Amino acid sequence: MSQEFAGKTFLIAGAAGFVPGHVAQFYLERGARVIGLDNFITGTRETIEILSAYPNFTFYEQNIYEGLPDLSDEKIDYVLSLASPASPIDFSRIPLEIMRVNSEGTRLLLELTKDKKARFLEASTSEVYGDPEIHPQVETYWGNVNCNGPRSCYDEAKRFAEAITMSYHRRYGVDTRIIRIFNTYGPRMRPNDGRVIPNFINQALRNEPLTVYGEGTQTRSFCFVDDLVRGINAVLMSDDPTPFNVGNPEEYTIIDAAKIIIKALGSKSTIIHKELPEDDPKQRRPNISKLTGATDYRPQVSFAEGLQKTAEYFRNLSLRS
Ligand code: UDP
Question: How far apart are CA 189 and CA 164, in angstroms?
Fold first, then answer.
């Protein structure tokens, strides 16, 4: 364990979630104190149990859009806004919760940041680009979002979250950062998360058919969670309040990702096709030159290595259950 962040306190909203749980562990491993908030709408108690093994971790079970716990006695250095359901299966199930956490929840976190004179980070998303007409996506692209389609509860909520973050920065001088997270995968995703990598890995491990939506010609660029966490930290510690893409620019068609996973796991699975969801973006790949130019961030984990690590997690999970 290093002491790089000893004496610093990070408030992490959404600490029981997949990405936030890894972010919390990154700072705990480096000597920080972490205060986690979550209401378990999509996060897991297992993640909080893992974090609770660190003596410097404190947890509050709280729905942040209904209010924050009393933190008046706390010195807080960093506020990380990572509390939003983000899987497309959540968009039809809990759209209003997604909109409320990214609007009122984010506003309350920004107020706290202002009071504490802390630094704020908004975890935005590649979804702000919608079904992009510019490829790869660069931060200066304003996006192509259907503002009332089935994904709009998330896309527009995150666009609002970016807007309110910049408004606090411009109006009150709050020290803010914005990241746009591209597709991320790794251990501790929920097996029933609904996203493509956990679906395909779990189907492959069970030798069941992999469910490719549509023809599978749509593309995504997959980032292993450890790389993403390094990217988040690089932006948080930088001095630029404008948005940064964070991800891995290696791009795959979904059909190729399915074939790679079957082969890598030595699976007997076949591929079947299911209906393509409405407004499913046709291509997605981050241009990360802004991030690599401003920081020493470089993705380090190959797709092959990340898949094996993720599959190992799901294999162990199925042995335990
Ligand atoms: N997808 C798929 N099969 C699945 C799950 C997803 O073919 O079992 C496709 C989905 O239609 C999309 C891509 O994989 O084109 C990535 O979907 P995901 O839900 O992981 O996240 P998104 O990038 O759409 O937010």
Answer: 29
Structural domains of the chain, ranges and CATH numbers in brackets:
9-182+225-248+286-300 (3.40.50.720)
pTM (2 d.p.): 0.98
User: Which residues have CB under 8 Å from 106's CB, separation 6+?
Assistant: 81, 122, 160, 161, 164, 165
Pairing of strands 33-38, 9-13: parallel
Catalytic residues: 154
* Closest CA to ligand 1's atom 10: 213
For ligand 1, what atom is nearest to the CA of residue 197?
20
Ligand 1 centroid – CA 219 distance (Å): 9
Give the SS3 label for residue 321. Answer: coil
Q: What is the pLDDT along the chain (321 residues), one digit of tens a residue?
A: 899 999 999 999 999 999 999 999 999 999 999 999 999 999 999 999 999 999 999 999 999 999 999 999 999 999 999 999 999 999 999 999 999 999 999 999 999 999 999 999 999 999 999 999 999 999 999 999 999 999 999 999 999 999 999 999 999 999 999 999 999 999 999 999 999 999 999 999 999 999 999 999 999 999 999 999 999 999 999 999 999 999 999 999 999 999 999 999 999 999 999 999 999 999 999 999 999 999 999 999 999 999 999 999 999 998 876
Q: Which residues line ligand 1 (CB under 6 A)?
A: 88, 183, 194-196, 199, 211-213, 218, 220, 254, 277, 280
